[in-house]
Design brief:
The chain has 15 helices and 20 strands. By secondary structure, the chain is of the alpha/beta class. A 6-stranded parallel β-sheet has the order 11-6-4-2-1-14, sandwiched between helices. Strands 16-17-18-20-19 form a 5-stranded mixed barrel.
Length: about 425
Amino acid sequence: MKKILIITLLIIFLPVITLAINSSSKNVLIVRVDGIINIATEELISEAVNFAATSNIEAIVILIDTPGGMMDSTFKIVSIIENSKIPIIGYVYPVGGKAWSAGTVILMSCHIAAMSPSSVIGSCQPVSFNPLGGSIPVNDTKTINALTTYLIERAKMHNRNETAARLFVERNLNLGAEDALKNGVIEFLALSIDELLKMINGVQVRTISGNVKLNTENAQIINFTPGLRVNILKIICEPTIAYLFLLLGLYALIFGFATPGYGGEAIGAILIILGLIGLGLLSVNILSLILIGLGAILLIAELVTPGFGIIGSGGIFCIIIGTLLLMSEPMLITGEWLTTFYTIGVSIAAVLGGFILFAAYKVLKAKRAKPVIGIMIGDTAIAIDDIDSGGYGFVRYHGEYWKAKANQNIKKGQKVLIKGKDGPILIIEPFKE
């Protein structure tokens, strides 16, 4: 128990220990942001900035390689960056990386913006999920104007190209590293982290606490290791996993109500909450939730009423449509990613839906089956255990396991004759040919 406690504390407080080892020299904290921008990314940046604020950190370098992500999380990350007293450098890395959509917004909000060769930024027009497949560009004036002004203000704050900021949203402009540098969208083009640290050495930036002159040449590079909370959120917030949690939770809830006593209701509720957190959908529109709830009710009804197929199919349809409509919030992400997620999501829903219908069929079949106790007597079964005379063990009868009491010694695998039944227990003896 003591060892487990020590290991757990090491995992949770590893960043603090790592920094303490390097606290006597100049330190630059490296934070890696890759994959989808979501709640986990937001927590990662927040944890890194708080960590740096209480430590000997000269600057934070955020390595960005992302197709984009959730709009709400993006705005919260920008707020964290702009309220940081420590200079934050956004660096699109590695070579050939991308900071599309939400990634571009984050890059434009950093105190210094840099890119590696062959990397790309842009495509900031929000998209929403299309229940019929893929994505739909958000074109309403309110959203576009708000995001355009938001990005222009970030460009203005750091003396960057305001026209490019506007076109990133209105025209889905994309820029390579060289063009971004030439057009004043970024400040530096660097091949590596070491090269970037040499370039920004001596540069003065303005943070919320005032002007700061960077001293980064030959600085000790520290790779930020997030705590357990962020690592758990990364798993939960993976869109496919979150969607799987949501569906499994619904089905567990259904089986829990249909067969109480096994904890299915509790497991289902937990999985549903995790799924909603992972998808960032705790505040969703009521219609979607009604559809999902209706689907769950229909599937429960399928388990207890005749007419297999029609009611259950309607339930599966409601759940699929309801969960797809949950993805209606505009997102700063590429349409290609949404198309991929749509395909995976529908496939998962279809497979799990087929499973629940098959399970419902089996339950119905078992409920409608005629009692077999009368016809069991005189039939044969196979012993699963060695059973002593007068003792108890298990036998297999037509694929089902039954507890049995033997009148004579019986060996495992031996064919036995069912002589009678005492409550739920079969009375058996060796079968004689």
